[in-house]
Each structure stands twice: as C-alpha cells, then as structure tokens.
Amino acid sequence: MGLGGISMWQLLIVLLIVVLIFGTKRLKTIGGDLGGALKSFRKAMDSDDKDEDDGGSPRRIEDSQPDAEFEEQKDKTESS
To answer: What are phi and psi of 6, to 5 degrees?
Structure first.
C-alpha cells in the first residue's frame, strides 16, 4: 500500500492521464511558473523576517515621498 491507500500503479495511471491531457511542454511551463512563484514568495517572506529582526517597521505609504508629478498637480489645483 502507498500513500493513504493509493498504490503505486494508481499514481502512475493518474500521472499518465495528466500527461495526456496537458502534455509535457505545458506541464514543464506550469512547473517553472510554480517554482518561480514559490521562490518569490520565500524571498518576500525572508525580507519581511529580516525587517522584523532588525527592529525596522515596514514602510508605510504616508512615510514615502510624493512623486514630482503629484506635486505639480497638487500645486495646480491649489492655485486654481
């Protein structure tokens, strides 16, 4: 018996059906996309952990400097 009552033959049959439906090229693409997503997720989680360990807080929108374009629009509306 295999995993949770599923035998090795049943897993191979399911794998064969998936390959027949999607094709190997599409499965490779899906695998690469999934791997890239997991890599970026781990990177984001590690950077958040480092921010918390350093005692720093995440940057809030209010703390950031406004864009120059926004400042020009703001000046135009205030002068009107």
So the answer is: -100, 125
Identify residue 42 by its one-letter amino acid code: R
Residues 6+ apart with CB under 8 A from 18: 27
Name the token pair of 69: 């374009």
**Token reading at 22:** 């999607």
- pLDDT tens track of the chain, all 80 residues? 556 788 899 999 999 999 999 898 998 999 999 999 999 999 998 887 777 666 555 555 555 555 656 566 666 666 65
DSSP for 14-64 reads HHHHHHHHH-HHHHHHHHHHHHHHHHHHHHHHHHHHHHHHTTPPPPPGGGS
